[in-house]
Amino acid sequence: MTDQIEKLTNAQIAWRAAQDIADGAYVNLGIGFPEMVAKFQPEGREAVFHTENGVLGFGPAPAPGEEDWDLINAGKKAITLKPGAAFFHHADSFAMVRGGHLDVAILGAYEVAQTGDLANWSTGPKGVPAVGGAMDLVHGAKRVAVITEHVTKKGQPKLVERCSLPLTGVGCVTRVYTSLAVVDIEDGRFVLREKLAGLSFDDLQAQTGAELHRPGPVADLIVPEL
Amino acid sequence: MDKTLPSLAEAVAGIEDGATVMIGGFGGSGAPIELIHALIDRYLATGHPKGLTIVNNNAGNGHVGIAAMIEQGMVAKMICSFPRSADPRVFTELYLSGKIELELVPQGTLAERIRAGGAGIPAFYTPTGYGTELANGKPVEEFDGKHYIRERWLKADVALIKAEIGDTMGNLTYRMAARNFAPLMATAAERTIVQVTKLVAPGGIDPEAVITPGLFVDGLVEVATPAQEEALNRAEAHHP
User: Fold this and answer.
1) Residue A141: which pLDDT band, with cuts at 50, 70 and 90?
2) What pLDDT score was predicted for residue A218?
3) Which residue among A6, A124, A178, B226 is buried most deeply as judged by most CB within 10 Å?
4) What is the CATH number of domain B8-122+154-234?
């Protein structure tokens, strides 16, 4: 069972997702965990990062004390600019998003369904609802990928037949990178592409809330120590 | 033509009870803190304007800016995408006790509704929100095999925004990511009032660099060293 299997850390999941980003791609990384993907761009490749509050081509956080609070990302954290950066207003920013001009968006998830439905903005009717750009981003990119733990803290599957939480978007996710596997969503089903070498297919299936299909070879999911 | 106003107090004098007010800014970047505080000062002195509907991406942070407006009781309704922040207590408490209304709008839809309002487009179709609870009650249509929901334009009585350089005719430039919603809001309000960090004579801005043409601007007031909401909150500032 997976108790003995070393699942991937968040950094390793982010690293794996970063390997699929091409040189020169325009990329939006969701707030929080997905932001980590930027750190793991392969040598020789440089993506251009978009933040929906109106910046293309931003770099890492400035040193403490060097923050300029007019220069922040969607998570309201201070950022820096790379050569070739650009500013624009919100309608242009979301034209980039909805208009399909971004190559990749990488988002977090509470649940992903085999149909590509995503739930990542609300855990239900309690508290103050807040959506931000989540519902726009799922319709944004040519490729919408999710990075996530394979199961919840309580061990419940996050890859499911149908989402039980409020939806962010319908049929929008194309690939899921989890702590155990890489799964594509094709024609309303989960297609397993990679899994940890020490994990049997049956064990992985037992932790997945919908059927995993194997129309082609399944590679080992190999990541470096980070 | 000279659209400059003599004071912040004068800049916010015409805003009436029940008005819809668009306020620029994404979090603290671009927040016109001095205009907001002048409006709060007027409310505290006169009891007006009250019952405002505020359009902004957020619902305030800490006890300054929009959070302070809400805290003083001037705001009946927020139209925003993300009413959470580092310190959202002021909005959260009123919302959970039913004392303030919330219209939650996805961020890109909020931007496009404002753009449409300014452009004379009463409604548009967007994929954003289709199949979600935020699409409840909205007309759905299929275009080229994909589903879209209809959203209405959003207009305001007044827009309060912050710009970097303004000339006396109202042409504006912005500073970095502080631009965010401001150029859209400037087009969608009956009256657009701007605080500029630097006021110059016509000709002082290269026409190639103008982001908001002066036609959209009704009044400007210079605030040479504007406060940053983030810095105020780190200093745990309150207004008043």
Assistant:
1) confident
2) 97
3) A178
4) 3.40.1080.10
**Closest chain A C-alpha to B42 CA, distance in angstroms:** 27
Chain A residues contacting B, CB < 8 Å? Answer: 51-55, 67-72, 76, 87-91, 93-94, 97-98, 117, 127-136, 139, 166-170
CB B138 within 8 Å of CB B150: yes
Q: Would residue A200 count as lying in a domain?
A: yes
Strands A212-213 and A189-195: parallel
> Please, what is the angle between helix B65-72 and helix B89-96, to 10°?
40
In chain A, how many domains are there? 1
Confirm if A139 and B128 have CB atoms less than 8 A apart.
yes
Question: Does A225 fall in a domain?
Answer: no
Who among B84, B131, B182 is closest to A170 (CB)? B131
Find the closest chain A residue to B234 by CA distance: A69
Residue A126 lies in a domain: yes
Q: Which tokens is A91 given?
A: 């309608």
Mean pLDDT for all residues in chain B: 97
- Domain membership of residue A152 (yes or no) is yes
Sort out which chain B residues have CB atoms less than 8 A from A91's CB and list them: 111-112, 114-115, 184
**Hey, is B212 helix, strand or coil?**
strand
Mean pLDDT of chain A: 95
CB spacing of A71 vs B177 below 8 angstroms: yes
A49: domain CATH number? 3.40.1080.10
Q: How far apart are CA B173 and CA B153, in angstroms?
A: 25
Instruction: Reply yes or no on whether the pLDDT at A1 is more than 80.
Output: no
pLDDT tens per residue across span A150-204: 999 999 999 999 999 999 999 999 999 999 999 999 999 999 999 999 999 999 9
Let me know if A52 is a catalytic residue: yes
pTM of full prediction above 0.90: yes
Question: Which member of A35, A52, A111, A194 is catalytic?
Answer: A52
